[in-house]
UniProtKB/TrEMBL annotation:
Organism: Ataeniobius toweri
Key word Plastid present: no
Protein's name according to its UniProt entry: Short-chain dehydrogenase/reductase 3
Domain Ketoreductase: from-to ranges: 31-213
Cross-referenced InterPro entries: KR_dom, NAD(P)-bd_dom_sf, SDR_fam
Length: 267
């Protein structure tokens, strides 16, 4: 009882002081990065950013071979090692099978980026049941399978990072995307639980990124109130800030940082 407030005070002061100091960045030159949904959108920019910041190898997963091939070729042309595998993260058996293929052909994945997601974009009553299920299978359960496939080896090696590209909608849902908001809220709970569970596992950590509306295909045409005040983010900026957050071992990243206020106001 006596120690608890003292410890709290110590950790708050320590965190405050550490946030003022420039943090050292992890070297990526030995990292093998796997990005789900790496063929297009934010995933594509993440792949390019990891390659730019010196990752040893970048592996792309997705369903559309054309996009994966184009992105892998672009990265390979810039001089970095990049390959792709067609894999639907909603299909548990396929995830485990392709994870084995990756281990055999490329090596141990040390940074897993769970980025793949879909949005159905209709109200509950207008939504087809299968479409509602599909969103949960891809956005939420897909992460269970990929994490189960790659985390055990990271723990063995005492070296690894699990990343989730979540969304601010996990904490501040909107109508009209009920499938997506539910899946992202569930995925946030997954990451919070995983992050706490890995706190005492040396060398293995987590980063959850919660971006605001970003300029990709996913929410193309979505109208935001006060667009001048809240312009959409550029996917390349989301990618760059995500890689920086991974390199500085940041557990949670809100993009833009002003979204902290939204979460506090909502609470
Ligand atoms: N755009 C935004 O406003 C925004 C805001 C906040 C957070 N986010 C999050 O950022 C991440 C990337 O979104 P984005 O904006 O880049 O969307 P996007 O352009 O629609 O890209 C989605 C990616 O996910 C892949 N994907 C979808 N279903 C898949 C499956 N079953 N298996 C494997 N890959 C699958 C897609 O590739 P294939 O179709 O080829 O499989 C594609 O590469 C998502 O997690 C999203 O929730 C986006």
């Amino acid at each position: 009882m006596l120690l608890f407030p003292i410890q709290m005070f110590y950790h708050i002061v320590r965190a405050g002081l550490l946030s003022l100091l420039p943090s050292s960045k992890k070297d990526l030159s030995k990292e093998v990065v796997l990005i789900t949904g790496g063929g297009r959108g934010i995933g594509r920019h993440l792949a390019k950013e990891f390659a730019k910041q010196g990752a040893k190898k970048v592996i792309l997963w997705g369903r559309t071979e054309k996009c994966l091939k184009e992105t892998a070729e672009e990265i390979s042309l810039s001089g970095s090692e990049c390959c792709y595998f067609v894999c639907d993260v909603a299909n548990r058996e396929e995830v485990y099978k392709q994870a084995k293929v990756v281990r055999e052909k490329v090596g141990d994945v040390t940074i897993l980026v769970n980025n793949a997601a879909v949005v159905h974009g209709k109200s509950l009553m207008d939504s087809d049941d299968d479409a509602l299920l599909k969103t949960q299978h891809i956005n939420t359960l897909g992460q269970f399978w990929t994490t189960k496939a790659f985390l055990p080896r990271m723990l063995e090696l005492q070296h690894g990072h699990v990343v989730c590209i979540n969304s601010i909608l996990s904490q501040s849902p909107i109508p009209g995307a009920i499938d997506y908001c539910t899946s992202k809220a569930s995925s946030l709970a997954f990451m919070e639980s995983l992050t706490l569970g890995l706190l005492y596992c040396p060398g293995v950590s987590c980063t959850t990124v919660l971006p605001f509306h970003t300029n990709t295909e996913m929410f193309r045409g979505m109208r935001v109130r006060f667009p001048q005040l809240f312009p959409p983010l550029k996917p390349e900026i989301v990618a760059q800030k995500t890689v920086d957050a991974i390199r500085t071992d940041k557990a949670f990243l809100y993009l833009p940082w002003t979204m902290h206020a939204l979460v506090i106001l909502k609470r």
